[in-house]
Fold:
Amino acid sequence: MTATTPAPTKTSGPGRSPRLRTASSRPRRAYSVDRPRRSRTLTALSSLIVLYTLVPLAWLVVSATKTQANLLGSPGLWFSGRFALWDNISQTLTYDHHVFLRWLLNTLLYVVLGAGGATLLAVLAGYGLAKFDFRGKKTVFAVVIGAVAVPATALAVPTFLMFSTMGLTNTPWAVIIPSLVSPFGLYLMWVFASEAVPAELLEAARVDGSGEVRTFFTIALPLLSPGIVTVLLFTVVATWNNYFLPLIMIKDPNWYPLTLGLNAWNAQAATAGGQPVFNLVITGSLLTIVPLVAAFLLLQRYWQSGLAAGSVKE
Structure:
């Protein structure tokens, strides 16, 4: 028996020695910004974050479709019994003499005056600190950074004592006035205005005879719109979900925001003779997050453009 030699897989042409294909001769896939390298670890971590975010929301939506009886006797992530979402919404809006609507209007009041005022002050102060030089600017910067580092709960008790001395507790001003101060929003607008508004553009406007107020509203404000939307979203979410400050400031249920009102409904089951209304608490929670989701969906394009501003040098 004679040994046979394996035939070459590919030749490089007539008169040349055969070349076997090896692993090193395989073409490599080119990666670019449009076609990045995939990472299984990052994909797994991102999937866990998505599940952590969406599973509670899915539980909330499914539970809002159940009656009080089916809520406690069925799996949390699956439907049970009749579809009672519309009945729960109707009962939530009409329960206890339409008090949910009163809490909703109170929350809107706190958001419009508190979050809107905080955004306005952050824009004006951030622009001024970014584009004007004055004595003590470094001290102001240190104070702002320090205020960002201090948690709001640490200032709750001193704020309560101060407002109690002035007689403002148990009034809407006890929630609105502290909400006007947003150190993080001020710092964000300071940094954004430093890059988004060119100093040469402001100098050209001043040379043409434009005043500072007119320059701000006609030139700087349109350039600051992405940052303004970003700060507005942060302040709106913080004011809408504010719980601890109204808890210590307000005792009158007629001035409760949604967070305190839903907590009061949830606490009814623990009181003597109280009626448990967990289905209304869950449905009210679902209705509470709908305006926030709508705000993010409507303003996300401005927010995304604000995050990408200044990332490309022309």
User: Anything to note?
Assistant: Residues 310-314 have pLDDT under 50 and may be disordered. DSSP finds twelve helices and no strands in the chain. Residues 97-308 form a domain with the MetI-like fold fold (CATH 1.10.3720.10). Residues 85-131 form the longest helix (47 residues).
